[in-house]
Write a structure and sequence with these properties.
Its EC number is 1.5.1.2. The chain is of the alpha/beta class and 266 residues long. It folds into two domains: 154 residues, NAD(P)-binding Rossmann-like Domain (Rossmann fold); 95 residues, Orthogonal Bundle (ProC C-terminal domain-like fold). The chain is 51% helix and 14% strand. Strands 3-2-1-4-5-6-7-8 form an eight-stranded mixed sheet, sandwiched between helices.
Length: 266
């Protein structure tokens, strides 16, 4: 079986490794995870993954090299592995705000680069991953698309939309989690115990998302089914809107996209 190396095994890197292993497209032994200190990879090693603190050595023999590192670390890590890379290896970048052109400027013009932006739900096979490239062939993109399709849904987009995808899908996990937390806090205020309120909020949010996915409907059409004239649902919705619920959410997404676009240059 082919090998894959994931440089950077923080939340996204380790989540990706676990997701791929659970999906059966790689065995843990065929996945190498790197970090600056092998001592911090004890959990990963115990799960059967190969581990290394030597990025240059880890990329040797890998069909795919995933860079799952912070934008601020990108240049240093790319310079570290540059000499060890082969032209046929596919470099999958999970780095926010770093373009294919930025990467080729360091790794060399011949490098095959596909950018991917998953989110942390990849650990349970429920990621929303956006994929893009500027020069890779359709076949090379298909290899990466197949990889991420096993751990959630994939959309192939234009590269100029990649920072926007970071805000909506990667940062978006935190936004939806915060809204669920707020709903559970509201539940406590109206009389439920905290653990019951959280369970109710989580399942209600899951039901709302599944309604849209399975019915292929628009949120407003489902909202219309719940809002009756002079009813309690429309009263609650309007109160939230009076306090800027949708506006705040939209502004947060826009600011996250703006911030994501400048991370590499900081």
């Amino acid at each position: 079986m082919a090998r894959i190396t994931i440089i950077g095994s923080g939340n996204i890197g380790f989540s990706l490794a676990k997701g791929m292993a659970q999906a059966g497209i790689y065995t843990p032994e065929d996945i190498t995870l790197t970090r600056r200190s092998v001592q911090s990879l004890t959990q990963e090693s115990a799960a059967g993954f190969s581990v290394s603190a030597d990025n240059a050595a880890a990329v040797l023999g890998a069909e795919i090299v995933v860079l799952a590192i912070l934008p601020q670390q990108a240049k240093l890590v790319m310079e570290e592995i540059r000499a060890a890379l082969k032209p046929e290896q596919i470099i999958v970048s999970v780095i926010s705000g770093v373009s294919c052109a930025d990467m080729r400027a360091v790794l060399g013009e011949q490098t095959i680069i596909v950018r991917a932006m998953p989110n942390t739900a990849i650990a349970i096979g429920q990621s929303m991953t956006c994929i893009t490239t500027d020069r890779a062939t359709n076949d090379e993109v298909a290899v990466v698309e197949k990889l991420f399709n096993t751990v959630g849904s994939v959309v192939v987009i234009q590269e100029e939309l990649m920072t926007a995808a970071t805000a909506l899908c990667a940062c978006g996990i935190a936004f939806f989690l915060r809204s669920i937390r707020a709903a559970s806090q509201g539940g406590v205020e109206i009389g439920f115990h905290a653990h019951d309120a959280l369970k109710m909020a989580v399942q209600t949010a899951k039901g709302a998302a599944d309604l849209l996915l399975q019915m292929q409907s628009h949120p407003e059409s489902e909202i219309d089914k719940v809002t009756s004239p002079k009813g309690c649902t429309i009263a609650g919705l309007n109160e939230m809107e009076h306090h800027g619920f949708s506006s705040a959410f939209i502004k947060g997404i826009k600011l996250s996209a703006q911030k994501a676009g400048g991370l590499y240059d900081e």
